[in-house]
Amino acid sequence: MENTVIRGLLIIVTVHGVWSERLDQSQPEVKRPGETVKMSCTISGFDMTSYYIHWIRQRPGKALEWIGRMDTGSNSAIYGSSFKSGYVMTEDVSSSTQYLQISSLTAEDSAVFFCARRNTPGQRLTITCQVSYSVSSYWTHWIRQPAGKGLEWIGSWAVSTQYYKASLKNKFSISSDSSSNTVTLKE
After folding, report:
1. What domain of life is recorded for the organism (predicted)?
2. Mean pLDDT by 10 residues, the chain (187 residues)
C-alpha cells in the first residue's frame, strides 16, 4: 500500500441563500489510499425533500465534475457515468443531512467536493463568503463557471470599491461586512 497522503479531500463550503438557506459541509479530512471517507452536507433554512441535492468535485487544475444527485426524501441517487463505482450517496431526512461516501480511495479522488442545490429558474441567489482576512484590507474576487464554459470573472470588492465585468454589472451586486469578515454576492 502506498503511503501517499491524499490532501484536501474536502473544503468547507457554506452557501447562504435567500432566507438564510444553508448547505454546511463537514470538516476537511486527510485519508490514505485504500481508505474510506464519508462527507456530510447538513441543510437548513429550506425543506431538503423539495429539491435535488447534487455532489460535485474539482480535482486540482481540472474542471468541475458532476458526481450525481440525490432524489431527496426517497434515498434514491443517480450517478454520473464516471462515479458508479466506489461512490455512494445517502441521506438522513430526520437530520436534513446528505452524505457522500467514497471507498477504496486513490490519488484520483484527491479533490475539493461540493454539495449544491439547484435554484428554481427566476429565483434570486445570494452567496455570502466568510473569509479569514480583513475584508477592508484585501480584494475579494467573485468568479463563476457557467455550464460547459470556462471560468468567468464577475467582479471584485475591496473596502468600498467595486468593479464588475461590463456584461454582468447590472446582474450582480457585491457588498461586505467588516464586522463579520464576509463578502456577499447578490444576483
Report:
1. Eukaryota
2. 35 35 80 92 84 88 89 89 92 92 92 81 76 85 84 87 90 89 86
